[in-house]
Amino acid sequence: MSKRYSSTEVADSLSISKHVLGQWRNSGFLVPSADGMYSLEQLLQFEPIREMSENDWDAQLAVSAQRPYRSVELFAGAGGLALGLEQAGFAPVLLSEIDKDACATLSKNRPSWPVVQGDVSHLNFEHLAGTVDFLSGGFPCQAFSYAGQKAGFEDTRGTLFFQFARAIREMQPRVFLGENVRGLLSHEKGRTVDTIKNVLKDLGYTLIEPKVLKAIFYKVPQKRERLFFIGIRNDFAECAEKFTWPSPYERILNLRDALKAGELFDVEVPMSLGQKYPERKKEILSQVPAGGYWRDLPDDLQREYMKQSYFLGGGKTGMARRLSWDEPSLTLTCAPAQKQTERCHPDETRPLTIREYARVQTFPDDWAFSGSSTSQYKQIGNAVPVNLAHAVGRRLVNLLNMIEKVSPVINVGASAYSTVEVDGQQVIAMETQAEYTS
Q1: pTM for the whole thing?
Q2: Percent of the chain at pLDDT above 70?
Q3: In this structure, are 78 and 160 located in the same domain?
Q4: CATH number assigned to the domain comprising residue 97
């Protein structure tokens, strides 16, 4: 029997609202059957549905690293990206992060990972040259100076992207991955992302055209989008043409998949600490239906809750928002009870708990977070979803496997790393060093 899709599944797959879907129905463009369901045959005209139907997920999942690829990660946070990359076949030799609690989280879960806590600008990476296969990092975006309109490497000084680019220049990894928010594409009318691309190319790398990946297509029950940059060192540029982005999973997962036992997790979400609403806010939110928001309240409560925002334009759909079991979660923020970005549980009138937050980001239940509850929410909210990182990581492993055929490593001996201070800088020192033929 042909697969059938609900209106919620269609709207999420096509990244449109149910209102737009209703307009399509009324115009006759896309009409469901009498029970409100859509057939696969109706939907194959849309590329996202076609790609899910013809997905290559299992084949890509079967790709394994020809050897553990040595990696360095900057701005590592609580480990969402690092954990997904580890699952794909990467072996971290250094993780850098400034936040003390996030570093404690990394060390608690992976005592073998070499975690360096502190300002990345104080690290020198030159001693790692020729020993690292891969560099990754979600560099926070700050405005650049466009003085003189050159906007080259030196013009990015003072930004965290400069530190990411400096690490590339000093380490010369075979491949790098940078990730950021989707909004970077439109920042400064596109000049910021153009500067980033130009700097990365000037460092001697062939850049895969940056791409926004929607987490819902990669077995993540969350409507989160991230922008990815991938660069391949120019001596391996021939492999760039063979790179492909990850295939989508066969369906879109929802909040039920995240919090209940099923396809994503074997057991229901464990109990954990969570924030609470003030009593009046709880009384108001208790009247919001699952999947609803402030406009679903009686008018007097709308006015009370929204205050002056009631009279302003825009949908403000994140305010007084209650999640639905049958839809992916909205993008998690660093604070689940923040008024502008409400993430209320579908049944209970409360914010999602810490473990529920972690489930939505596809962290395993045994990944423990350090620090206060506020810090833990922040760490989880800032993370790259683990399953999204794993999907991207598998394609990077496939890329490095191709590079390995072109230029294999002669000696893949283990390296031990420590940090020593030289002229006020933390220098990464090695006891043994692997050698490349290149």
Answers
A1: 0.90
A2: 88
A3: yes
A4: 3.40.50.150
Cβ partners under 8 Å of residue 33, min gap 6: 39
Distance between CA atoms of residues 229 and 332, nearest Å: 22
87 and 225: one domain?
yes
Two tokens at 316? Answer: 């403000």
* Number of compact structural domains in the chain: 3
3-class state of residue 399 by DSSP: helix
Please tell me whether residues 285 and 169 are part of one structural domain: no
Active-site residue, 344 included? no
pLDDT at position 420 is 46
Claim to verify: residue 187 and residue 285 sit in the same structural domain: no
Query: Which range (148-157, 213-222, 312-321) has the least confidence?
Result: 148-157
Residues 65 and 191 in one domain: yes
**Domain boundary at 349, 364, 382, which?**
382
Domain residue limits at 262: 255-382
* pLDDT digit string, tens, across residues 342-395: 889 999 999 999 999 999 999 999 999 999 999 999 999 999 999 999 999 999
Cβ neighbours, 10 Å, residue 97 = 24
Spatial neighbors of 17 by CB under 8 A, at least 6 apart, are: 11
Tokens of 409: 């490593």
Contacts of residue 150, defined as CB under 8 A and 6 or more positions apart, other chains included, come to none
Neighbours of 268 (CB within 10 A): 11
Q: Is the pLDDT of residue 85 over 70?
A: yes
The DSSP result for 70-136, as a single string, is EEEEES-TTSHHHHHHHHHTEEEEEEEES-HHHHHHHHHH-TTS-EEES-GGGEE-GGGTTT-SEEE
10 Å CB burial of residue 271 (0-12, 13-18, 19+) is exposed
305 plus 239 within the same structural domain: no
User: Among 103, 141, 239, 344, which one carries the catalytic annotation?
Assistant: 141
Domain match, 125 and 171 both: yes
